[in-house]
Amino acid sequence: MRTTTLADLGEDRLVAQLSSLLASGPSVRTGIGDDCAVLGPRNAPLWQLLKTDAVVEGVHFTPDTAPRRIGWKALCRPISDIAAMGGSPEHALVTIAARRDLPAAWLRALYRGIEAAARRFGVHVVGGETARSPGPLFLSIALTGSVPRPHCVLRSGGRPGDALYVTGRLGGSLAGHHLDFIPRLEEARWLVSNFKPRAMMDLSDGIGSDLPRLAAASHCGFHLDEEKIPRNPGCSLAQALGDGEDFELLFALPPRRCAALEAAWKTTFPRLPLSRIGALTPPTRATKRTPHNAPAAHGFDHFA
Amino acid sequence: MRTTTLADLGEDRLVAQLSSLLASGPSVRTGIGDDCAVLGPRNAPLWQLLKTDAVVEGVHFTPDTAPRRIGWKALCRPISDIAAMGGSPEHALVTIAARRDLPAAWLRALYRGIEAAARRFGVHVVGGETARSPGPLFLSIALTGSVPRPHCVLRSGGRPGDALYVTGRLGGSLAGHHLDFIPRLEEARWLVSNFKPRAMMDLSDGIGSDLPRLAAASHCGFHLDEEKIPRNPGCSLAQALGDGEDFELLFALPPRRCAALEAAWKTTFPRLPLSRIGALTPPTRATKRTPHNAPAAHGFDHFA
Q: Which of A125, A151, A177 is the last residue of a domain?
């Protein structure tokens, strides 16, 4: 019998398998399976958020990428996850594994990119580790944050009938956008304060795989109006569904709130499109059976 | 002119350079340069601890190492850092970058090693990320913890005249001990509750480079009585100084407390040696001049 590899299993099934090996705890509000871990006593006024995210040379950036842009991206990725919970980022630790012959100036430039993102989004970099890598550069950032309990939005709170929205435009991240994106921190904080979504996540693997995850976590099916998906200039529908690394917000809102949201959004963020792209539906048999295991149709699977 | 590489610079100077690029913040008690970041308002009863640590295939373990042992080691390393501050570990996030053809069973075994360490030392694994690696396996763990403010021990509190102690025996980690070590969590918590050290750290790179770091952080010199260094069976002095990955505690204590500590230690931890190996001294010119930059004589430098 052939050995099952990570590529055979795929990312979602792998995560589901590994999750089942791990114990939970009394101060864990949400662990594996959402954008961040949510920690704290059930009734605490403020919950802690915790996220790690890695970028790897040859996978998330090419060797000729400007180090400052790599640093910016590496910190903005987990900031986007904290934003998707309705929270604010706080402290970061930077772990780097690098070849011994890497120019020190290259690494300083990478740190300047991290620091630029840290300053812009109110993060303090408080430590980290440098280790040796035998080959590719590996950069992992751990980020803490906090969210007032009433503002915390999970992936799992959506209900059938909720309208689905995305911010910005999707697709074409490989043209460069994936290195310079702005996490939707300000927009997410405004949303949870004014029109709290029932479920929210950031789009990192493409709406084609991320939307099924949000729907599955909410024990719903979904309807997606493909014509309504906002595309970046020159992008096909397939690209908008599957390129990934959009780092836009996807969220679910009760229909009675939609008109008010759309009006307020236009005056608050006049330059950022907000698109109603579909709705959550009653669960289909597939989503009922495998809630953590939705098919990654169209989207980016790290091991596929 | 030849480009300066990480190997030219060495780990301590690299960390000093990168630190200077980063801003600090009002809730940062200690950032880069100690075993963990210490976070929280100055007068909070409990401070938060934050640490990341990475192990890389071909650097920290060989490809034929049993995955369960790799997982155990990967979590025990940052637990050892939390212990060295006098704290207790709480929540961990696991970031893995792996080749697509890695057997899924191998990764499950690695997670079982992580979970075994988590259960033993009271840690909850609350999430993480799996990414693709083009080559070697990378495993980075972010660990939170907490410490009652009066128990928190930094590297920087030592004073001239303080006695220096190490727990256990040093050297020979490559014979296998580095994969199965027990972080001195219980011993460190007992110490900070009963004989609070003025300065403490865990020995990860070898006492030959770690002791100069503790002394420099405390703005002291040091005297090391090499004959008193407790060695593992079959180890030379050079191995005890420089093999690294001992994960024992090194700490500084006022001399008037030494007799009481040694008596209490023997009854509390009868099977773990405690050795008085020297003392902190008034600063030498070298340590005054380069407090974050002590020479890594004899010890392990990740980029050397």
A: A151
Question: Does any CB of chain A come closer than 8 Å to the CB of residue B31?
Answer: yes
**Which residues does chain A have within 8 Å of residue B108's beta carbon, measured at their own beta carbons?**
17-18, 21
Over residues A266-276, the pLDDT tens digits come to 999 999 999 99
Mutate to test the interface with A, among B50, B85, B120 (most CBs of A within 10 A): B50
| Strand arrangement of the beta sheet that strand A88-98 belongs to | A28-30, A37-39, A46-56, A138-148, A88-98, A124-132
A116, part of any domain? yes
Count of domains observed in chain B = 2
C-beta separation of A143 from A91 below 8 A: yes
Query: How distant is the Cα of A98 from the closest Cα of chain B, in angstroms?
Result: 8
Q: Which residue has the tokens 């959506």?
A: A158
Domain that holds residue A235: 163-289
Taking the C-alpha atoms of residue B247 and residue B169, their distance in angstroms, rounded to an integer, is 10
Taking the whole predicted model, whether its pTM rises above 0.80 is answered as: yes
- Of B121, B151, B181, the domain-final residue: B151
The answer on pLDDT for B11 being more than 90 is: no
Convert the pLDDT of each residue in A247-291 to its tens digit.
Answer: 999 999 999 999 999 999 999 999 999 999 999 999 976 544 333
Cross-chain Cβ contact B132/A302 below 8 Å: yes
Query: CB-based contact (8 Å) between A132 and chain B?
Result: yes
For B17, nearest residue in chain A (alpha carbons): A108
What whole-number distance in Å separates Cα of residue B242 and Cα of residue B301? 10
> Which of B34, B56, B130 is opposite residue A133, by nearest beta carbon?
B56
Best mutation site among A4, A124, A300 for testing chain B: the one with the most B CBs within 10 Å?
Answer: A124
Nearest residue to B246 via CA among B204, B209, B276, B214: B204
B34 within domain boundaries: yes
- Do A98 and A188 reside in the same domain of the chain? no
pLDDT digits (tens, 9 = 90+) for A137-169: 999 999 999 999 999 999 999 999 999 999 999
Asked if the ipTM is above 0.90, the reply is no
